[in-house]
Amino acid sequence: MNTRILCFAISGVMLLLGSAQTHAQAVAQGRLLASDAAPQNNFSQSMDIDGDVAVISNSTGTNPYVFERVNGVWTEVARLAPGESTVGYSYAIDVAVSGNTIAVGSSKSSGALPHFGLVYLFEKINGSWIKVARLTAANANTPQDDFGGNIDLSGNRLVAGEGYFNGHGAAYVYVKTAAGWQFESLLIASDHATYDSFGGEVAIEGDRILLRGLRQWQCQPPL
Prior knowledge:
The chain has strands at about 15-20, 25-35, 45-50, 55, 65-70, 75-80, 90-100, 100-110, 120-125, 130-135, 150-155, 155-160, 170-175, 180-185, 200-205, 210. It is an all-beta fold.
């Protein structure tokens, strides 16, 4: 099965659109620029928005940006630093926001083995975005897992894809409790097969989780 994704981007610029109530047409609400914008910095490599908070990643390995809308104006308010070395990681390869929580996924960089990844959780506390947790795969014992390469948040739940888990892929679900972020369950397709890349894309909304796999993916020899 071949999967094609078409991408369109304007270097260094994000345009926020909203719907006009009268005709449900998209209208511009803001034009976001990185405070340290530079050529080929891949601004908007990954992004998410929830209410008046948007998180946008730059080139992997750099700290993602947080924008907030106050009185109708979008302003950069924070950069999300991991607080530790991320050498060998694709830090901020994916980002997600829900309410006052932001998740930053960091899979291992290409060629860096084993491919155990990380997910950092940030929360807005007393007006500042603070790192509150650092998650690893609950059973990080398989090389090339790429945990954290795809993530999503909804309320107090996080889903993190692991496209190469045991060769077929999986996804981890974490929930925030009074004791902090805890592992809740491991999702594996009932009909999994090698090279499925199940969990290569993830999405969560409330109590529903959507996972994508690439069944029957294989390398074709040249004609």
